[in-house]
Amino acid sequence: MTKLLILPGSARRDSYNRKLAAVAARVATDAGAEVDLIDPAEYDLPLFNQEIEDATGLPEAAKRLKERFTAADAILFVSPEYNSSIAPLMKNYIDWVSRTETDDEPALSAYRGKVAGLLSASPGKLGGLRGLVHLRAILGNIGVLVVPKQFSLSGADGKFDDTGKLTEESAEKSVRGVIQEVLSVAGKLG
């Protein structure tokens, strides 16, 4: 069974990306994955700063988040777009998790050998697509194999019902397609 970590890149409780992450968690569970859905409220991290790390080491929240990344076989990044790029919260998570804790720990150990998928949601017409371009480049550069299939939910402000479910079957089918590709590739590499 593939262990899939799902990381929403928004701390706002009612964010469209957190709603999309919850949909993805249900879809992945139905597909047979062991799902670990991150709640960003549990990881209050300072903005990455080398001086903080030098003075006190990795913050406890970063260590806990890194443990969850390390334990996962695959990661689904569900990231909003900010000013046509990656959300600052998502980038901060990526940066803290990338840090080594000991001299003998391999660089980027929490990312090596991981398979990832990308989702985004936005009320705009592009659905956060522009941010995924940058996220894909960052992840590829740190050794993550990002599957080609991705999904951006445009018009997200009208695509969830009161219970948080997607109102369009085609949108859920697209989420399912990304998850199936991630689980398939992770299964072949595992």
Key words describing this protein structure:
two-stranded antiparallel ribbon, 18% strand, Rossmann fold, 7 strands, five-stranded parallel β-sheet, alpha/beta, 190 residues
Description:
- By secondary structure, this protein is an alpha/beta fold.
- It has a single domain (3-189), classed as 3-Layer(aba) Sandwich (Rossmann fold).
- It is 41% helix and 18% strand.
- It has six helices and seven strands.
- The strands form two sheets. It has a five-stranded parallel beta sheet, with helices on both faces. A two-stranded antiparallel ribbon has the order 4-5.
- α1 crosses α6 (169-189).
- The protein is globular, with a radius of gyration of 16 Å.
- The termini are close together.
- The mean pLDDT is 96.
Provide the fold topology.
Elements: E1 3-8, H1 16-30, E2 34-37, H2 50-56, H3 60-71, E3 74-78, E4 81-82, E5 85-86, H4 88-97, E6 115-121, H5 129-141, E7 145-153, H6 169-189
Parallel strand pairs: 1-2, 1-3, 3-6, 6-7
Antiparallel strand pairs: 4-5
Helix pairs in contact: 1-6
Query: What is the ordering of alpha helices and beta strands?
Result: EHEHHEEEHEHEH
Number of domains: 1
Instruction: Report mean pLDDT, rounded to a whole number.
Output: 96
User: N-to-C terminal Cα separation, in Å?
Assistant: 10 Å
> Count the helices. How many?
6
Task: Determine the CATH topology.
Answer: Rossmann fold
Beta-strand portion reads 15-25%
Helix content: 40-55%
The largest sheet is:
5 strands, parallel
Fourth-level CATH superfamily? Flavodoxin domain
CATH architecture: 3-Layer(aba) Sandwich
